[in-house]
Amino acid sequence: MSKIRHIELPSQIESVEKAAMSADEFARNQGFGDEVIFAVDLAIRESVANAVKHGNQFDEQKPVQVTLSDTENGFEVEVRDFGPGFAVSDIPDPTDPENILKTNGRGILFMRSFMDEVEWIHPDDGGLLVKMLKRR
Amino acid sequence: MSDITITERQAGDITILDLQGKVTIGEGSVALRTTIRRLLGEGKNKILLNLGGVGYIDSSGIGELVSSFTAVKKEGGMLKLLNLTQKIQDLLAITKLLTVFDTYDDEAAALSSYN
Question: Which residues of chain A are within 8 Å of residue B60 when distances are taken between CB atoms?
Fold first, then answer.
Protein backbone atom coordinates (compact mmCIF):
# COMPACT_ATOMS: atom_id res chain seq x y z
CA MET A 1 0.00 0.00 0.00
CA SER A 2 1.33 3.45 -0.93
CA LYS A 3 2.73 5.53 1.87
CA ILE A 4 2.34 8.79 -0.03
CA ARG A 5 -0.75 10.30 -1.59
CA HIS A 6 -0.83 13.42 -3.76
CA ILE A 7 -4.08 15.27 -4.39
CA GLU A 8 -4.66 18.34 -6.53
CA LEU A 9 -7.83 20.27 -5.80
CA PRO A 10 -9.55 23.30 -7.31
CA SER A 11 -9.72 26.53 -5.33
CA GLN A 12 -13.25 26.12 -4.06
CA ILE A 13 -14.72 25.56 -0.60
CA GLU A 14 -15.80 22.00 -1.49
CA SER A 15 -12.10 21.10 -1.68
CA VAL A 16 -11.87 21.41 2.11
CA GLU A 17 -14.20 18.43 2.61
CA LYS A 18 -12.56 16.45 -0.20
CA ALA A 19 -9.08 16.92 1.30
CA ALA A 20 -10.31 15.96 4.77
CA MET A 21 -12.06 12.82 3.49
CA SER A 22 -8.99 11.76 1.56
CA ALA A 23 -6.75 12.31 4.60
CA ASP A 24 -9.16 10.37 6.81
CA GLU A 25 -9.19 7.41 4.43
CA PHE A 26 -5.40 7.52 4.00
CA ALA A 27 -4.84 7.67 7.77
CA ARG A 28 -7.16 4.73 8.45
CA ASN A 29 -5.55 2.65 5.71
CA GLN A 30 -2.14 3.35 7.21
CA GLY A 31 -3.33 2.35 10.68
CA PHE A 32 -3.16 5.70 12.46
CA GLY A 33 -5.16 6.08 15.67
CA ASP A 34 -8.15 8.30 16.39
CA GLU A 35 -6.11 11.07 18.02
CA VAL A 36 -3.91 11.43 14.94
CA ILE A 37 -6.90 11.23 12.62
CA PHE A 38 -8.77 13.97 14.51
CA ALA A 39 -5.74 16.29 14.58
CA VAL A 40 -4.91 15.80 10.92
CA ASP A 41 -8.56 16.23 9.92
CA LEU A 42 -8.79 19.55 11.73
CA ALA A 43 -5.39 20.79 10.52
CA ILE A 44 -5.98 19.84 6.90
CA ARG A 45 -9.39 21.53 6.87
CA GLU A 46 -7.90 24.74 8.24
CA SER A 47 -4.88 24.72 5.94
CA VAL A 48 -6.85 23.91 2.77
CA ALA A 49 -9.45 26.55 3.67
CA ASN A 50 -6.62 29.08 4.07
CA ALA A 51 -5.08 28.00 0.76
CA VAL A 52 -8.40 28.39 -1.09
CA LYS A 53 -9.48 31.65 0.55
CA HIS A 54 -6.37 33.60 1.48
CA GLY A 55 -3.80 31.91 -0.77
CA ASN A 56 -5.37 31.30 -4.15
CA GLN A 57 -8.24 33.68 -3.32
CA PHE A 58 -10.79 31.39 -5.02
CA ASP A 59 -8.92 31.61 -8.35
CA GLU A 60 -9.84 28.26 -9.88
CA GLN A 61 -6.91 28.49 -12.27
CA LYS A 62 -4.69 27.97 -9.25
CA PRO A 63 -4.77 24.52 -7.66
CA VAL A 64 -4.30 23.50 -4.07
CA GLN A 65 -1.81 20.64 -3.83
CA VAL A 66 -1.97 18.30 -0.88
CA THR A 67 0.55 15.59 -0.04
CA LEU A 68 -0.13 13.03 2.68
CA SER A 69 2.75 10.87 3.87
CA ASP A 70 3.09 8.04 6.34
CA THR A 71 6.70 8.39 7.51
CA GLU A 72 8.78 7.06 10.35
CA ASN A 73 8.04 10.34 12.16
CA GLY A 74 4.27 10.05 11.87
CA PHE A 75 1.63 11.56 9.59
CA GLU A 76 3.04 14.36 7.46
CA VAL A 77 0.83 16.78 5.55
CA GLU A 78 1.86 19.36 2.99
CA VAL A 79 -0.58 21.93 1.61
CA ARG A 80 0.60 24.21 -1.18
CA ASP A 81 -1.15 27.16 -2.77
CA PHE A 82 -0.05 29.52 -5.51
CA GLY A 83 -1.23 32.83 -4.12
CA PRO A 84 0.69 35.89 -2.92
CA GLY A 85 1.64 34.26 0.38
CA PHE A 86 1.63 35.90 3.77
CA ALA A 87 3.80 36.22 6.85
CA VAL A 88 2.45 34.09 9.67
CA SER A 89 3.93 36.57 12.13
CA ASP A 90 1.49 39.17 10.75
CA ILE A 91 -1.51 37.16 11.94
CA PRO A 92 -2.70 38.64 15.24
CA ASP A 93 -3.02 36.40 18.29
CA PRO A 94 -6.74 35.47 18.34
CA THR A 95 -6.62 34.85 22.11
CA ASP A 96 -5.51 38.40 22.82
CA PRO A 97 -8.41 40.24 24.53
CA GLU A 98 -8.55 42.81 21.73
CA ASN A 99 -8.96 40.07 19.10
CA ILE A 100 -11.06 37.54 20.98
CA LEU A 101 -14.36 38.65 19.42
CA LYS A 102 -13.02 38.73 15.87
CA THR A 103 -14.75 36.30 13.58
CA ASN A 104 -11.63 34.88 11.95
CA GLY A 105 -7.95 34.24 12.53
CA ARG A 106 -8.19 31.04 14.59
CA GLY A 107 -7.22 28.47 11.94
CA ILE A 108 -3.48 28.78 12.47
CA LEU A 109 -3.96 28.51 16.23
CA PHE A 110 -5.86 25.22 15.71
CA MET A 111 -3.15 23.87 13.38
CA ARG A 112 -0.44 24.71 15.92
CA SER A 113 -2.47 23.35 18.83
CA PHE A 114 -3.29 19.96 17.37
CA MET A 115 -0.25 19.17 15.22
CA ASP A 116 3.21 18.54 16.68
CA GLU A 117 5.07 20.60 14.09
CA VAL A 118 3.84 23.29 11.68
CA GLU A 119 6.11 25.16 9.30
CA TRP A 120 5.36 27.77 6.63
CA ILE A 121 7.67 27.83 3.62
CA HIS A 122 7.78 30.37 0.79
CA PRO A 123 8.82 28.37 -2.31
CA ASP A 124 10.99 30.17 -4.88
CA ASP A 125 8.30 29.83 -7.53
CA GLY A 126 5.68 31.52 -5.39
CA GLY A 127 2.77 30.60 -3.20
CA LEU A 128 2.88 29.15 0.26
CA LEU A 129 3.68 25.65 1.48
CA VAL A 130 2.49 24.49 4.88
CA LYS A 131 4.26 21.43 6.26
CA MET A 132 2.77 19.72 9.29
CA LEU A 133 3.58 16.64 11.31
CA LYS A 134 1.51 14.63 13.75
CA ARG A 135 3.54 12.02 15.55
CA ARG A 136 2.07 8.54 16.05
CA MET B 1 -27.61 18.52 1.02
CA SER B 2 -26.76 20.85 3.86
CA ASP B 3 -24.18 19.81 6.45
CA ILE B 4 -26.39 21.08 9.25
CA THR B 5 -29.98 20.88 10.41
CA ILE B 6 -31.27 23.60 12.70
CA THR B 7 -34.51 22.94 14.59
CA GLU B 8 -36.20 25.78 16.39
CA ARG B 9 -38.10 25.50 19.69
CA GLN B 10 -39.59 28.16 21.91
CA ALA B 11 -39.48 28.20 25.72
CA GLY B 12 -41.31 31.37 26.76
CA ASP B 13 -39.38 34.22 25.18
CA ILE B 14 -36.26 32.08 24.73
CA THR B 15 -35.57 30.48 21.37
CA ILE B 16 -33.71 27.19 21.48
CA LEU B 17 -31.89 26.12 18.35
CA ASP B 18 -31.02 22.42 18.21
CA LEU B 19 -28.10 22.02 15.83
CA GLN B 20 -27.35 18.68 14.19
CA GLY B 21 -24.38 18.11 11.93
CA LYS B 22 -21.33 20.20 11.13
CA VAL B 23 -20.75 23.90 11.67
CA THR B 24 -17.96 24.37 9.18
CA ILE B 25 -16.85 26.69 6.42
CA GLY B 26 -19.57 26.99 3.78
CA GLU B 27 -23.15 25.88 4.31
CA GLY B 28 -23.01 25.03 8.02
CA SER B 29 -21.78 28.47 9.01
CA VAL B 30 -24.09 30.27 6.58
CA ALA B 31 -27.16 28.37 7.85
CA LEU B 32 -26.43 29.42 11.43
CA ARG B 33 -25.84 33.04 10.44
CA THR B 34 -29.07 33.17 8.42
CA THR B 35 -31.11 31.70 11.27
CA ILE B 36 -29.69 34.07 13.89
CA ARG B 37 -30.23 37.12 11.68
CA ARG B 38 -33.83 36.05 11.00
CA LEU B 39 -34.57 35.59 14.71
CA LEU B 40 -33.14 39.02 15.49
CA GLY B 41 -35.30 40.45 12.70
CA GLU B 42 -38.33 38.89 14.43
CA GLY B 43 -37.32 40.53 17.72
CA LYS B 44 -36.20 37.23 19.27
CA ASN B 45 -32.97 38.06 21.06
CA LYS B 46 -32.78 35.44 23.81
CA ILE B 47 -31.19 32.50 22.05
CA LEU B 48 -29.87 29.19 23.34
CA LEU B 49 -27.74 27.15 20.95
CA ASN B 50 -27.88 23.44 21.68
CA LEU B 51 -24.63 22.07 20.25
CA GLY B 52 -25.11 18.51 21.54
CA GLY B 53 -25.67 17.23 18.02
CA VAL B 54 -22.73 19.05 16.47
CA GLY B 55 -20.16 16.44 15.59
CA TYR B 56 -17.69 18.85 14.09
CA ILE B 57 -16.86 22.53 14.14
CA ASP B 58 -13.92 24.32 12.50
CA SER B 59 -12.45 27.79 12.95
CA SER B 60 -15.03 29.20 10.57
CA GLY B 61 -17.82 27.69 12.70
CA ILE B 62 -16.23 29.06 15.87
CA GLY B 63 -16.08 32.44 14.14
CA GLU B 64 -19.77 32.14 13.36
CA LEU B 65 -20.56 31.46 17.02
CA VAL B 66 -18.65 34.62 17.93
CA SER B 67 -20.37 36.60 15.21
CA SER B 68 -23.78 35.37 16.42
CA PHE B 69 -22.88 36.21 20.01
CA THR B 70 -21.92 39.79 19.15
CA ALA B 71 -24.92 40.28 16.83
CA VAL B 72 -27.35 39.16 19.55
CA LYS B 73 -25.60 41.25 22.21
CA LYS B 74 -25.77 44.29 19.94
CA GLU B 75 -29.55 43.87 19.83
CA GLY B 76 -29.68 43.84 23.64
CA GLY B 77 -30.10 40.08 23.81
CA MET B 78 -28.20 37.06 25.08
CA LEU B 79 -26.84 34.06 23.23
CA LYS B 80 -25.77 31.09 25.34
CA LEU B 81 -24.46 27.62 24.58
CA LEU B 82 -25.86 24.27 25.69
CA ASN B 83 -24.42 20.73 25.63
CA LEU B 84 -20.92 21.30 24.34
CA THR B 85 -19.18 18.13 23.20
CA GLN B 86 -15.70 17.56 24.59
CA LYS B 87 -14.14 18.52 21.26
CA ILE B 88 -16.04 21.80 21.03
CA GLN B 89 -15.17 22.53 24.64
CA ASP B 90 -11.50 21.92 23.82
CA LEU B 91 -11.64 24.30 20.85
CA LEU B 92 -13.36 27.00 22.90
CA ALA B 93 -10.74 26.55 25.64
CA ILE B 94 -7.84 26.89 23.18
CA THR B 95 -9.33 30.07 21.77
CA LYS B 96 -10.15 31.33 25.31
CA LEU B 97 -13.77 31.72 24.23
CA LEU B 98 -14.96 29.74 27.25
CA THR B 99 -14.40 33.02 29.07
CA VAL B 100 -16.77 34.77 26.67
CA PHE B 101 -19.68 32.35 26.33
CA ASP B 102 -22.09 31.26 29.04
CA THR B 103 -22.20 27.47 28.68
CA TYR B 104 -24.53 24.90 30.25
CA ASP B 105 -24.92 21.13 30.40
CA ASP B 106 -28.50 21.30 31.58
CA GLU B 107 -31.29 22.86 29.55
CA ALA B 108 -33.43 23.86 32.55
CA ALA B 109 -30.48 25.62 34.17
CA ALA B 110 -29.68 27.36 30.91
CA LEU B 111 -33.26 28.59 30.51
CA SER B 112 -33.52 29.88 34.06
CA SER B 113 -30.24 31.81 33.62
CA TYR B 114 -31.97 34.23 31.25
CA ASN B 115 -34.15 35.58 34.03
Answer: 49, 104
Residues 6+ apart with CB under 8 A from A41: A20, A23, A24
Is residue B108 left, alpha or beta, with left meaning phi > 0 and alpha meaning psi from -120 to 50? alpha
Are A106 and B96 an interchain contact pair (Cβ–Cβ within 8 Å)? no
Of A46, A49, A103, nearest to B66 by CB-CB distance is: A103
Q: Helices marked H in chain B — which ranges?
A: 27-41, 59-74, 86-94, 107-112
B32 contacts in chain A (CB < 8 Å): none
Are the beta carbons of A44 and A77 closer than 8 angstroms?
A: yes
Interface test with A, best of B1, B59, B73, B100 (most A CBs within 10 A): B59
Query: A41-92 pLDDT, tens per residue?
Result: 999 999 999 999 999 999 989 999 999 999 999 999 999 999 998 788 888 9
Minimal CA separation from B100 to chain A, in Å: 9
Looking at this predicted complex, what is its ipTM?
0.87
B25-63 tens-digit pLDDT: 877 778 899 999 999 999 999 999 999 999 889 999 999
DSSP state of B74: H
Handedness of CA A29, A117, B28, A83 (dihedral sign): negative
Cα–Cα distance between A23 and A41 in angstroms, integer?
7
**Cβ–Cβ below 8 Å for A106 and B87:** no
Residues 6 or more apart in contact with residue A69 via CB below 8 angstroms: A3, A4, A5, A75, A76, A77, A78
What's the rounded Cα separation, in Å, for the pair B89 and A36? 19
